[in-house]
Amino acid sequence: MGCGLIYRTPFYFGFFKALPYNKVKTESTYHFPMKAWSITKIAFYIAMTGICISCAAKIPIPSRYPTTIPPSQRPYQINGVWYFPIPSAEGYVEKGIASWYGEDFHGKPTSSGETYDMYGMTAAHKILPLGTHVKVTNLLNNRSVIVRVNDRGPFVAGRVIDLAYTPARLIGIVGPGTAPVLVEAVQVALPHDKNGETVWDVEPIRDFQHGNFTIQIGAFQNVANALKIRAAMLEEYSEVRIQPPSPEDRDNERYFRVQVGRFTELSKAQYEAERLKNDRFPDAFVVAVEEE
Asked: pTM for this one?
C-alpha cells in the first residue's frame, strides 16, 4: 500500500461520518448500531495509524554532511553562532585583533587532534583550513611571525586569531593581551637571521580566483570568419577582440582567436563560458589575460 493513502484519509473519515449511526433505512440493508459502529471506527483509526507509521519509517534520513568533507572542514556551532570553514586559504588576507592563549590550555587537545603546546609556533583561527601557515604582523610595531593554524578560535567578538604564547611574545602581544594585526596566508618558509633579527622571506598564497579573464569562443585560420563572429557578438558584448596569430605559430597553425568579455572573477567567467557552451559555442573556454 503506497503512502499516497495518507493524503486521502480525510475522504474516508468523511464517508463514515456521513452514514447513519442508529437508524435503519426503509429500503436498505445497511444497519449501523452504535456499538458496532464504534468498534468499526476504532479499528479503522488503528489501521490508518499503522499505515502512517509504516510509511513514515520508509522515509530515508540523509546524512548530515557529505562523506567527502573532512570533519575539520564541516560547519560547527559555538555559543549559538555557526562558523563555516573555507576550503582553501588561497589569497586570504585579514585585519583585526589578535589575542593569545597559554597555560590554561597547555597539554589539552586542539581541534586538529594535536596536543596544544603554548611554546609552539601555532595559532587558532575560526575558518581557515587547519594546517594553513599564516604570517601575523603586529601593526603597532611591525613585528611579524609565521604560525601554523591547528586549532579553532578565538570565539570573542572582534578577534580574528588566537596565538600560542611564544609567537605572541615574539611580536609583543603577551603584555597588552591583544593587538591589531594583519593576517596573511603564506607558503611554508623558513626564517633566517639578518642583522641579529629573525626575518621571514615568504610569498603569499597566490589568489587564482581573481585577475583578468576573457572567454575564447572560436579560432579561425580565415580572418574573414573571425570578423563575422566578432561583428555578431558585438550585439551582446561591449568588448570583443580578435587575437592575431603569434609570430611563433607555424604556418599551418596560425589562428585568429575570437575572445569576448572581460572578467575579474574566475567564477563569473566560468559561469558565462558554460552559458555560451550551451548556447552556440560548444568549444568556449576561459582564458587568463596577462596584465599589460
From this structure: 0.49
